[in-house]
Amino acid sequence: MAKKHIFKYPGQAEYAADAASRPTDTTSLSQIAGEAHIDGVNVITNTANPERGDAVFFDKVTARRVLVKHGTLVRTLIDSNRYFDCNHTVVGIIYGKVVVVANERLNPLSWASGDEWLISNINTNTAGSMTLQVKYYGASGNYVKDVAVSWSAGDTIDKVVNSINNFTSADSYQSYVKAYKVGVRSLVIVVNGYSTAIGVAVTAGDATAERSYQGYQTRYCEALPHSTEILKASGEITYWAAANYE
After folding, report:
1. Residue 117, exposed/middle/buried by CB under 10 A (0-12, 13-18, 19+)?
2. What's the confidence (pLDDT) of residue 106?
3. Deepest in the core among 32, 33, 61, 234, taking most CB within 10 A?
4. Is 52:92 a contact under the CB 8 Å cutoff?
5. Cα(188)–Cα(136) distance, integer angstroms
6. Cβ proximity of 29 and 38 under 8 Å
């Protein structure tokens, strides 16, 4: 009889503290207070519900593509007699179609998701200004730009957005930094680039800056497809599988 791995915890703290007790070579189910959490290993599904980071395999028995769900792939435990690694990773879904990234040569590559910073408390009812320190990784390395923005009484947030986007074309700034309007007194700046040296801070003025979405960069790891280190913008390393091909 197959062994079942089912755990029960009163809360998240106890679940986290007992991580060493759960198996790493098979799937386990944990009941945490009123919710169920699955720690999956090689969770295989059809292609009906793809997610970014899923690995694409070919099932030799059914002659169909299948997905190994992101964060669950352990290559050493995959039945290679049945499943063939297509070396494709799902990076998005457009109008129901799966978009994958493939690299037949298996060369080390990087792929990133942008950091998003919310800039709020911008009062354009009165004349004002602010200076943003923008850190990003451009074509030739890490850059730090001090973006000075000013506005007149009665201007709209659109003028502030345009000023940030038109700041400079030097050092690939406009390729890696983009501002978007999100409210009458706020905007979002998306900073792209494969580096921990990215971010936005308000160094002058009354506006405030906070990270609203922490981007991540994937790094090809140990020469194995889909085996990925995730380097967050904070510098933290995690191991959630995501796209590792361009």
Report:
1. buried
2. 39
3. 32
4. yes
5. 15
6. yes
Query: In 95-239, where do the E strands start and end?
Result: 97-102, 110-113, 115-120, 128-138, 141-151, 177-183, 186-191, 199-204, 208-213, 216-220, 228-232, 237-238
Asked whether the CA dihedral 52, 53, 59, 65 is positive or negative, the reply is positive
pLDDT of residue 216: 56
Q: Give the C-alpha separation, 241 to 226, whole Å.
A: 7
Contact criterion met (CB below 8 Å) for 114 and 192: yes
**Token code pair at residue 114:** 């942008």
Sign (positive or negative) of CA dihedral 78, 83, 84, 89: negative
d(CA 164, CA 167): 5
Chain segment 185-235, per-residue pLDDT in tens: 999 998 876 566 678 999 999 899 998 877 655 444 333 444 444 444 455
Per-residue pLDDT tens digits for 44-95: 888 877 777 788 888 999 888 888 887 788 888 889 899 988 777 776 665 5
